[in-house]
Amino acid sequence: MAAKAKSGLSVRASQQEATYRRILNAAVASLVEEGTAATTTVAVQHRAGVSRGALLHHFPTHAELLAATIDELVRRNESAAREALASHADDVDPIDRATRVLAEAFAQPAYLAELELWAVARTDPQLRAGLRAAESRARRDLDRVVSDLFGSLRERPGYATVVALTTEFVRGLALAGVLRSNRARRNRLLDEWIWAIRILLDQKPIASIPLNISKPGRAIND
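Now predict its structure.
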């Protein structure tokens, strides 16, 4: 009897996990394809094919639903970075390769969807709190990718400065690309930044910069 009850609980837990994943995947797809404004709880409920009660059981508020998407968005961003790295396998210049790979990864829809959540969090304290927690947990994965990309430059005096500034630069480049589609201009800016990196790498930083860079949760706090 006890074994049967335990089995029933296990099945119920599996069903709840499947429902949770279905809702979360629907929310991520909506964010990437339609944007934050269109990713309402009703829209996600319909896309996931679940009842209102099921959605609210897992995500009582809209802010909790949006914050929960961060882990999956970061996973996709990490995957995009690795795909970009594979496409630049023939680029033997570590500075050129690392910078262009990061720029390509940050230009992908999943990363832009993540940045869109940051913007919305500016005026939504509940979402901001949820994003801080989610970003702190998930960002380690992307930090590891960034560290891997620039790892061969780690012994240079300006390494930490270059990695931090490059992350901010390509983030801004990604946002600019939403309104500007001038690829020649984008490539020219990348060329100029790569040139600047070669100089900065041999400069001692004027202040200590933590190596665990690229933390959007911190940016949201500031």
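The chain has a mean pLDDT of 86.
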